[in-house]
Design goal:
Length: about 300
């Protein structure tokens, strides 16, 4: 069912949030990995072939933006992921603003990487075989109650939208891309400086506010399920979103939500579940006041078990 209500950024909460919130799914890169879309650890390797190699100032062999920035900033370090790489580049942008020169090469390099990311993710979604690797995504979309559930995703790809189009499902505005999506103008990198620029904050802030309101409406919240999301420590805004709403919901005082009393049976009663095969992510979720239930399963296995 499509949600057709309006949202006022300055404080008016749409009636659909007050009435119908069931399960909130929070998706990370592990979800899209099902369709062979690169994860954080794999993304730089996936993007590098799409970048143009240019001659180096020291006369060395031509290198891409990823290659020379890695050499400049991560010498003798292995396993540099997209998150750490873009965090560093975001910091370098500020340094470039302090120079006297008219060019900020770091901004130019960021634009190049953004263009490559859009191209890569668009091609990935176009090439999905919905009869094989894409079947799990279609099955997941069929399990969603589109009149009650919501999806918060940190993924830039529009795999969910492609699946919805294939199934003929009208998802309305129940898929919320917190970092933006490839077809949108604004993309926010998973860094603690993501909202330092107004050009990023202004278009994305309303959806973060809406996500907070959804998480706070525990009267209608039955489950909070994280799928393939590691809760990366460097993404302080993301952690704050879940930490602050969890703190509010766990307060011992009689809680209200927009002037309405939360029934005793619904006070901090929803289940928190983390679906991730990597045991190391458990420590990133320790801020929750009630320990989440951890399922060390891949997305496909969890989905298959859930449908039984």
């Amino acid at each position: 069912m499509s949600c057709c209500c309006s949202f006022d950024w300055w404080g008016t909460i749409p009636s659909c949030i007050l009435r119908t919130v069931g399960t909130i799914y929070v998706l990370g890169a592990g979800f899209s990995k099902t369709c062979h879309i690169a994860t954080d650890a794999e993304m730089l390797g996936a993007l590098n072939p799409l970048l143009k190699a240019t001659p180096q100032k020291n006369g060395g062999p031509p290198r891409t933006t990823i290659e020379h920035l890695t050499e400049q900033n991560f010498l003798n370090r292995d396993g540099i992921g997209f998150e750490l790489f873009m965090s560093n580049l975001s910091s370098l942008k500020f340094l470039g603003d302090c120079w006297d020169g008219k060019r900020n090469v770091f901004r130019e390099e960021e634009r190049e990487l953004r263009k490559a990311l859009r191209r890569y993710l668009t091609e990935c979604v176009k090439s999905v075989n919905w009869d094989t690797e894409g079947r799990a995504i279609l099955d997941f979309m069929r399990t969603i109650n589109w009149s009650a559930d919501h999806i918060l995703t940190f993924n830039y790809d529009q795999l969910l939208e492609a699946a919805a189009e294939k199934l003929g499902i009208a998802v309305g505005d129940r898929i919320i891309h917190l970092h933006g999506a490839v077809r949108e103008r604004t993309l926010a990198w998973p860094t603690f400086t993501k909202f330092a620029y107004r050009t990023t904050k202004a278009p994305l802030a309303p959806r973060w506010k809406r996500a907070f309101e959804l998480l706070r409406n525990q009267t209608q919240l039955d489950q909070l399920i994280f799928v393939g999301y590691s809760m990366p420590p460097a993404d302080l805004e993301a952690k704050a979103l879940f930490n602050y709403s969890d703190w509010y919901n766990s307060l011992p005082a009689i809680p209200f939500f927009h002037g309405k009393l939360v029934p005793a049976s619904k006070r901090y009663s929803y289940e928190i579940c983390v679906v991730n095969p990597n045991p190391d992510v458990r420590q990133n979720y320790k801020f929750f006041r009630r320990p989440p239930r951890f399922l060390r399963q891949k997305f496909e296995v969890w989905l298959r078990n859930r449908r039984r």
